[in-house]
Structures are given as structure tokens and as C-alpha cells.
């Protein structure tokens, strides 16, 4: 994957470049927004935007880069709660991470963001998304929904899910075959109302498997998270 790292801190940028290079990424870097936009000539497949704080200046930088490219953008900041994350996403970021970061989690997030860029929903009209999946174990699963409507069909038969069950399945369906870390699923689905224990996620996954009745559709990657199995 071709990755563009944009940031003002030379030491952080250099360290990140080296870590990504060791893990097989083709890395380009740039200082500042203008430098980052010029570096788009390298045609990156993903952008890492390293900022100190999610302040207005940094978010304007993110918005300028987003106007210049459709490439997935991950913002990495020194601090940031739910509000800061939402501001970053509204500025055009695909994901928002808070340092310090574990390299393994960063690479997983990069993979998920890149996959979202490649696997767009098959239909999108007026805020509604529809994704058709052909899991490795035969049944056809269709996930569709907007802010008010949630619909899941298994071989044409509707399946009733709670809001959080639907959200978990929708996230997995957007990145078929890609492992989503437990922490990412918990942060995305529960956001500011985090569950008291991460066993809550296991319960929701177990309930999803039972309701969908499609063996092997949701795979557990022990110690990491979950992924949706689809024909390769």
C-alpha cells in the first residue's frame, strides 16, 4: 500500500515512516498542508495526517486535503474525545486516532480504511446504503439501512436486529474479509456510552450469529477482533 504521511513534527514523521517501511508499506511524507497536497502526485492509497491537537487550524488542513483527494484519511492527534473525533470525521477524515498508538492497531485501522475505499456499498441513495454479501457458507445476506430504517435479509427473509446488533453487522459488512479490532468496534458502536465490559461485544456477536443462522459468516480472530467471511 502506498501511504502518505503528513505532519509538522519531523521526529514523529520519521519514526512512523520507518515503522511502516519495515512492515512493507511504500511511504512518502510531507510537511504541512501545502506539502501534503503537492505530495498527492505520488498517488497514495491512504493518508496519515499527524496533528498535535484537533483544533480549528488542523481540521481546516484536513478539510483542504479532503477537497484535493478522495483517498482515505486517518487523523492522528495528541488528544481527543468523542467531540474531537466527530469534528475530525466531519472535516473529511475516515478515522480518528489518539496517540500513543500501537503499531498493530494502526495497521489494522489502515487496512479497514483502505478497504472501505475499495468496497463501497452497492447502492446509495438519500442516505440509504445497501450491501449484498455472499459469505463463504452459501446464504446471501443483504444489509441495508439509514438513520431510521434497519433491514437485514438472509436469502430474502427479513431478520430483526437491535440497533447495536445492526451497527456491528453494518461495520463488518463495509470491510468484508478485513479484521476489525475489538477496540474499533466498541468505539464505533458504543461511542461515548461505552459498555462496562467488552464481553458486551461478544454477546452481540453471538446473538448476531444465532439470528442470522449463517455458519461461518462472522469469524473470530482471537486476540484481535472479528471479520466477515466472504467468497474470495
Descriptive account of the structure:
- By secondary structure, this protein is an alpha/beta fold.
- The chain contains eight helices and 13 strands.
- Strands 2-1-3-4-5 form a five-stranded parallel sheet, with helices on both faces. Strands 6-7-8-9-10 form a five-stranded antiparallel sheet, with helices on one face.
- The relative contact order is 0.10.
Please supply descriptive tags for the structure shown above.
5-stranded antiparallel sheet, alpha/beta, Rossmann fold, 5-stranded parallel sheet, 2 domains, Arc Repressor Mutant, subunit A, 232 residues, 40% helix, 8 helices
Radius of gyration: 18 Å
CATH class of the largest domain: Alpha Beta
Q: Please tally the β strands and state the result.
A: 13
* Biggest pleated sheet: 5 strands, parallel
Q: What is the straight-line distance between the termini?
A: 20 Å
How much of the polypeptide forms β-strand, as a percent range? 15-25%
Q: If you consult CATH, what is the topology of the largest domain?
A: Rossmann fold
Helical fraction equals 40-55%
Q: What is the H/E string?
A: EHEHEHEHEHEEEEEHEHHEE
The total of helices stands at 8
Amino acid at each position: 500500500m502506498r501511504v502518505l504521511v503528513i505532519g509538522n513534527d519531523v521526529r514523529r514523521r520519521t519514526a512512523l515512516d520507518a515503522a511502516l517501511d519495515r512492515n512493507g508499506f511504500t511511504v512518502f511524507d510531507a510537511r504541512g498542508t501545502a506539502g501534503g497536497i503537492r505530495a498527492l502526485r505520488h498517488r497514495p492509497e491512504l493518508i496519515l495526517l499527524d496533528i498535535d491537537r484537533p483544533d480549528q487550524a488542523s481540521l481546516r488542513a484536513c478539510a483542504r486535503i479532503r477537497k484535493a483527494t478522495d483517498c482515505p484519511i486517518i487523523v492522528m492527534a495528541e488528544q481527543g474525545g468523542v467531540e474531537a473525533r466527530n469534528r475530525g470525521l466531519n472535516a473529511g477524515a475516515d478515522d480518528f486516532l489518539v496517540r500513543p498508538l500501537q503499531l498493530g492497531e494502526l495497521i489494522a485501522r489502515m487496512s479497514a480504511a483502505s478497504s472501505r475505499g475499495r468496497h463501497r456499498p452497492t447502492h446509495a441513495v438519500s442516505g440509504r446504503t445497501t450491501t449484498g454479501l455472499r459469505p463463504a457458507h452459501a446464504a446471501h445476506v443483504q444489509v441495508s439501512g439509514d438513520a431510521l430504517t434497519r433491514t437485514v435479509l438472509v436469502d430474502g427473509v427479513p431478520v430483526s436486529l437491535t440497533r447495536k446488533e445492526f451497527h456491528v453487522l453494518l461495520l463488518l459488512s463495509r470491510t468484508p474479509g478485513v479484521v476489525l479490532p475489538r477496540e474499533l468496534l466498541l468505539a464505533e458502536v458504543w461511542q461515548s456510552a461505552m459498555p462496562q465490559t467488552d464481553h458486551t461485544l461478544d454477546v452481540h456477536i453471538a446473538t448476531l450469529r444465532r439470528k442470522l443462522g449463517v455458519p461461518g459468516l462472522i469469524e473470530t480472530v482471537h486476540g484481535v477482533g472479528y471479520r466477515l467471511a466472504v467468497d474470495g
